[in-house]
Design a protein that fits this description.
The chain is an alpha/beta fold and 329 residues long. It is 29% helix and 27% strand. The protein has 2 domains: 141 residues, Quinone Oxidoreductase, Chain A, domain 1 (Alpha-Beta Complex), CATH 3.90.180; 139 residues, 3-Layer(aba) Sandwich (Rossmann fold). Helix 2 crosses helix 7. It is globular and about 60 Å long. The model has no long low-confidence stretch (mean pLDDT 96).
């Protein structure tokens, strides 16, 4: 028996509560992991508070991130004792996730944790850091070099945006941040942004083409801001789009694509093939160290997940929330 935070439906009401579960209640996947740490993402907070349709079936253990040690494995790729990390891949949405002391998971999205990265650091990264790294890799694969010009990052105060700034700066890129929270300007410059622009500067409707300003962009906002960035990207530049915090619409023209050769790169961090997952995690371990992850995260105990889910949705938390599954505080 082990502890799990479980979403259950009673009548028309869905609630999350702590329960004692048995391994036989976990899904029929080939690898059993003893979870050491998880993290709270926006999706997780919505699932725990029942404010969003995140969970595909019930009962379900939320938690789209986990790190831990393999206990049993029917896959030749993993052996008992391996320290592994999983972010996305349907975890905590399609099948039971990281908010339990044990999880049974498929092999395809599972990655051995790089030797230079601790379990806590992996969860300080979590889906946000993994997504940020995918965005940076996509820009690099699109031939956006440090010599190409400045990279602009929207939603810079959020998890993806802030980690993306740190990665880009440490790789030698010049980075401009867009943030709607002026009180975070100092924090963003500490991460490596050379300039912080207010979100209001991008509120005017986008023209088909505007003066070229950026070699590339990482956009977590969507809607008019994404259209504005596309119109301002340099010839042969690229935009990695990974979010819709500002809306899912995109009112633009083909002009940036056919006249400037701009590339719009869609980033989906949930379903990613394993070689790219391994590449992203190794790059995260190589580029950012423990001091960075510690500076953007706080650690809570297992029992505090509901409380901090509420705080996250209320905007009362800055940075990443690591869940220590061995602590009840």
């Amino acid at each position: 028996m082990f502890n799990a935070l479980v979403a259950q439906q009673t009548g028309k009401t869905v609630t999350c509560r702590f329960e004692q579960w048995d391994n036989c209640q976990l899904p029929d996947h080939p690898i059993l992991v003893k979870v050491s740490h998880s993290s709270i993402n926006y999706k997780d907070a919505l699932a725990v508070t029942n404010r969003g349709k995140i969970l595909r079936s019930l009962p379900m253990v939320p938690g789209i991130d986990l790190v831990g040690n393999v206990v049993e494995s029917a896959s030749t790729d993993f052996q008992p004792g391996d320290t592994v990390v999983l972010c996305g891949g349907g975890l905590g949405e399609d099948y039971c996730g990281g908010f339990a002391e044990y999880a049974r998971v498929p092999a395809e999205p599972l990655v051995k944790l790089p030797a230079t990265m601790s379990p806590k650091d992996a969860m300080a990264a979590g889906t946000a850091g993994f997504t940020a790294m995918l965005c940076v890799l996509a820009l690099q694969d699109a031939s956006i070099k440090t010599s190409s010009g400045s990279i602009i990052v929207s939603g810079a105060s959020g998890g993806v945006g802030s980690v993306a700034i740190a990665i880009l700066a440490r790789l030698g890129y010049s980075v401009t941040a867009i943030s709607g929270r002026p009180e975070h300007s100092g924090f963003l410059k500490q991460l490596g942004a050379s300039e912080v622009l207010p979100r209001e500067a991008f509120q005017e409707p986008a023209k088909p083409l505007e003066p070229q300003r950026w070699a590339g962009a990482i956009d977590t906002v969507g809607d008019n801001l994404l259209a504005k960035l596309l119109a301002q990207i340099n010839y042969a530049g690229a935009v990695a789009s990974c979010g819709l915090a500002g809306g899912h619409q995109l009112n633009t023209t083909v002009m940036p694509f056919i006249l400037r050769g701009v590339k719009l790169l869609g980033i989906n961090s949930t379903y990613v093939d394993n070689p790219l997952r391994q590449r992203a995690w190794q790059q995260l371990a190589d580029v950012l160290d423990h001091r960075f992850w510690a500076s953007i995260s706080q650690t809570i105990g297992f029992q505090a997940i509901p409380e901090y889910s509420e705080k996250l949705l209320a905007g009362e938390v800055r940075g990443r929330i690591i869940v220590d599954m061995n602590s009840a505080e």
